[in-house]
C-alpha cells in the first residue's frame, strides 16, 4: 500500500444477508496492523454511499473502500468516476459479481488483506440510459427478477433461486432491434439486426454474481463490452446450459450468442424490465449504451493483475 495512510470504508449494513458486527472490528484490526488511519461510515439509505464517497474525495482520503454488494459498489463509483481517487471492494452482497471477477475473496479477512496490499488499475465502465454500470446490466427476464427481488424480503442465493424458478415458465421472450455504432471483433455479425431473446446482458465484467459467467471473455480493461443474447432454454437443455454458465464455458449456439461492441442502441416494442449491476431500474423500450473507457481507478489483488 506504500504511502497510502488514510482510507475511508463505506459500509452498507443491509447488503447481502445482513450486517455482522465483527466486520467493523476486522477492518480496524487490519488497518492497525498496517499503520493505516481509517474511517468507517455507514450508509443510511439509497444514494447515501455516493454522498459519503463525494465527501471522502473532498476530505482527501487516498482510497475509498465500498463494503457491500454490487449496488453499494456502484453508488461509490458514481462519486469516483473520472477522478484519480482509487476505490476498493470488500464484498458483502448477495452476488458480488464485480468482486468475484476481480478475484477478491468472499472471506472478509482475506479480502482486507488483498485490498490493503493491492495494486491500482484503471478500468472501463459504461452507461445504459444514463445509469452508470461497472459490471453486468440486463434487459428482460433478469431485469424482471431484479425488480421482484428488490421488492422482496428474502435475500441471498437461495431466495434468488426460488424466485427464478417461480417466474421462469410464465415469462415470455421479446424481439429486440439492435443498432451498434461500433464493433471491435472480426465477427460477421452485422451492426444492425433483430433478435428474439429471453434476456440480454450487457457485460463489462464476466459474471452476474455467484460465478454465473454470462460473458466469460469479458475484460474490464479492453475498451469493449460484451452483448449476450440468451433464449429461453428448454428443460432438456437446462442442466447443460446451467453447467456451462457456472463453469464459464458458455459458447455460441441455439440458446446463446455473444459479441463485442462499444456503443449502441437497443429498441423493444413494449417497455421491458431492466437492471443496472443487479439493481432494479423499472422499465423502458429504448436502451442507449455508451462505453466509458478507463474511467474508474480501482484497487485489485496483486494476484489478479493480468487476468482482468
Can you walk me through this structure?
The protein is an alpha+beta fold and about 300 residues long. Helix content is about 30%, strand content about 35%. It contains eight helices and 13 strands. The strands form two sheets. Strands 5, 6, 7, 8, 9, 10, 11, 12 and 13 form a nine-stranded antiparallel beta sheet that branches. Strands 2-1-3-4 form a four-stranded parallel beta sheet, with helices on both faces. A hairpin with a 2-residue loop joins strand 5 and strand 6. Helix 1 runs parallel beside helix 5, helix 2 packs parallel to helix 3 and helix 6 packs across helix 7. The protein is globular. The chain starts with 5 loop residues before the first strand and ends in an 8-residue tail after the last strand.
Layout of secondary structure:
Layout: E1 6-11, H1 22-33, E2 37-42, H2 48-58, E3 63-68, H3 70-80, E4 87-91, H4 97-101, H5 108-116, E5 119-128, E6 131-133, E7 136-140, H6 141-151, H7 156-168, E8 174-183, E9 192-197, E10 199-203, E11 225-230, H8 235-247, E12 256-276, E13 279-300
Helix pairs in contact: 1-5, 2-3, 6-7
Amino acid at each position: 500500500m506504500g504511502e497510502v495512510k488514510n482510507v475511508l470504508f463505506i459500509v452498507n449494513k443491509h447488503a447481502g444477508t445482513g450486517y455482522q458486527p465483527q466486520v467493523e472490528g476486522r477492518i480496524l484490526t487490519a488497518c492497525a496492523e498496517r499503520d493505516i488511519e481509517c474511517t468507517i461510515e455507514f450508509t443510511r439509505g439509497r444514494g447515501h454511499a455516493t454522498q459519503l464517497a463525494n465527501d471522502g474525495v473532498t476530505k482527501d482520503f487516498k482510497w475509498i473502500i465500498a463494503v457491500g454488494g454490487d449496488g453499494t459498489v456502484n453508488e461509490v463509483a458514481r462519486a469516483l468516476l473520472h477522478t484519480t481517487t482509487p476505490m476498493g471492494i470488500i464484498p458483502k452482497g448477495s452476488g458480488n459479481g464485480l468482486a468475484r471477477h476481480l478475484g477478491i475473496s468472499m472471506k472478509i479477512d482475506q479480502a482486507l488483506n488483498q485490498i490493503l496490499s493491492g495494486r491500482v488499475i484503471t478500468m472501463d465502465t459504461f452507461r445504459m440510459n444514463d445509469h452508470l454500470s461497472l459490471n453486468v446490466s440486463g434487459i428482460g427476464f433478469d431485469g424482471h427478477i431484479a425488480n421482484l427481488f428488490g421488492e422482496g424480503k428474502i435475500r441471498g442465493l437461495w431466495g434468488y433461486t426460488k424466485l427464478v424458478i417461480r417466474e421462469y415458465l410464465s415469462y415470455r421472450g421479446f424481439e429486440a432491434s439492435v443498432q451498434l455504432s461500433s464493433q471491435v471483433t472480426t465477427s460477421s455479425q452485422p451492426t444492425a439486426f433483430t433478435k428474439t431473446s429471453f434476456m440480454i446482458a450487457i457485460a463489462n465484467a464476466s459474471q452476474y454474481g455467484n460465478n454465473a459467467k454470462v460473458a466469460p471473455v469479458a475484460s474490464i480493461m479492453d475498451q469493449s463490452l460484451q452483448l449476450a443474447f440468451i433464449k429461453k432454454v428448454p428443460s432438456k437443455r437446462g442442466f447443460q446450459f446451467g453447467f456451462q454458465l457456472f463453469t464459464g464455458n458458455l459458447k455460441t449456439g441455439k440458446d446463446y450468442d455473444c459479441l463485442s461492441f462499444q456503443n449502441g442502441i437497443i429498441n423493444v416494442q413494449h417497455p421491458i424490465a431492466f437492471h443496472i449491476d443487479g439493481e432494479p431500474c423499472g422499465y423502458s423500450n429504448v436502451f442507449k449504451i455508451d462505453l466509458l473507457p478507463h474511467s474508474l481507478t480501482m484497487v485489485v489483488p496483486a494476484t489478479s493483475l493480468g487476468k482482468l
